[in-house]
Amino acid sequence: MTERIISLADIGDPLRVQPLAEAIFGRGDRRPDWFARKLVREHVDPGLSQLAIAGEPGDPACWGGYVLVGTPPSRAPAARTAGTGVRVEARGRGLGTALLEAAANAARCAGFAALELWAEHARGSFYAAHGFVVQRSFETWLTFARGQTEDRLPAPLPFDRTKTLVIGEFLREAWEHSDAGERHSFDHGGVRVQVAREGVAFAIHRVLADPEIPADLIAEALRRVVERLPAPAPIVAIALDTVSSITGPLGACLARDGWRVVQRGAVMLRQLGACDAQTVDKGRSPPR
Ligand SMILES: CC(C)(COP(=O)(O)OP(=O)(O)OC[C@H]1O[C@@H](n2cnc3c(N)ncnc32)[C@H](O)[C@@H]1OP(=O)(O)O)[C@@H](O)C(=O)NCCC(=O)NCCS
User: Fold this and answer.
1) Which of 38, 86, 90, 137 is the most buried (most CB within 10 A)?
2) Could you tell me if the CB of 153 is within 6 A of ligand 1?
3) Percent of the chain that is helix, strand, coil (3-state, to 5)
4) In this predicted structure, what is the pLDDT of residue 30?
5) Is 140 in the pocket of ligand 1 (CB under 6 A)?
6) Mean pLDDT in residue range 100-115
7) What is the spatial distance between Cα 1 and Cα 97, in angstroms, rounded to a whole number?
8) What is the structure's pLDDT at 287?
9) CA 269 – CA 137 distance, rounded (Å)
10) In 3-state terms, what secondary structure has residue 81?
11) pLDDT in tens, 91-107
């Protein structure tokens, strides 16, 4: 079997990759439109995204892996991967490497200066071996809602405020492109917590605080969010910055309140050099 890498744009509708994504990562309790929502919220560009195939591009049975590449304006001048996966049975043969290299070259030739990705801790060394350097480390925390109803959840407020410290954040566009009825802002004592519904769960996309606010007051603001969101929905606080001067003590407060760390990871960046026009397009085979 000989795989090659093509642009995701070559298969027409990028939504056709959803079954492959679910075969690799599992379906879990995701909402049915999770993949379509991801494409929109993470600004995925099919022309920069890549697919590994071992036959005709139109035949999903021969698709072995993919990398989605997005161009969210908040990350410029970097492009950003929004998911990389290779089928279990095809791993270890260079497909992941070939997909990443093709994505890097496509982004480079489209004028992007760098390629950014979010890596779980367990994959960090894979990406480091491919030239990605850690920009910041983060922890994602989990707890369960204790509120009664979501009838009167607060309306979304602007994502940004001046003179605030960002304690943790996911992609700005992901929150802004969520339906208005599915995103909320909770303000309490100088802390703003921005939340979006993600299937059965709620995700805290961003926590902003005035720099002088102590960790226990930030924990108090998060406790109020937990008490407002409808039980028993899981709540994940995405990507709290592990090196902020606040998040060390905040972690102790969160642990005391019943939160626990469910994921450790890092934002990683690879600088892109000059465009290699010879390999930017079709038909490249991965190294064996
Ligand atoms: C990570 C992934 C895309 C790699 O794809 P792949 O086709 O197996 O990768 P390659 O064959 O190009 O590279 C394999 C090399 O990476 C190494 N590698 C693979 N997974 C690794 C990991 N988690 N950590 C460190 N190294 C890893 C292999 O040991 C091998 O090293 P070698 O070349 O020195 O022998 C694939 O394992 C995968 O889909 N995993 C599940 C989905 C996933 O976790 N995606 C990333 C989300 S952050």
Assistant:
1) 86
2) no
3) 30, 35, 35
4) 87
5) no
6) 97
7) 17
8) 43
9) 12
10) strand
11) 999 999 999 999 999 99
Q: How confident is the model at residue 163 (pLDDT cuts 50, 70, 90)?
A: low
- Could you tell me the maximum CA-CA distance found in the chain, to the nearest angstrom? 60
Pick the closest to residue 235 from 147, 164, 174 (CA basis).
147
Above 80 in pLDDT, residue 288?
A: no
Closest CA to 118 of 177, 174, 171: 171
Residue type, 201: A
Average pLDDT of the segment spanning 63-92: 97
Please choose, from the candidates 200, 170, 196, the residue with its C-alpha nearest in 3D space to the C-alpha of residue 183.
196
Reply yes or no on whether the pLDDT at 7 is more than 90: yes
Atom index in ligand 1 nearest the CA of residue 92 equals 11
For 33, the token pair is 């439109």
Q: How far apart are the C-alpha atoms of 275 and 111, rounded to whole Å?
A: 8
Model pLDDT for residues 179-189, shown as the tens digit of each residue: 989 999 999 98
Residue 166 to residue 168: CA distance in whole angstroms? 6
In a mutational test of the pocket of ligand 1, which residue from 86, 89, 138 has the highest number of ligand atoms less than 8 Å from its CB? 86
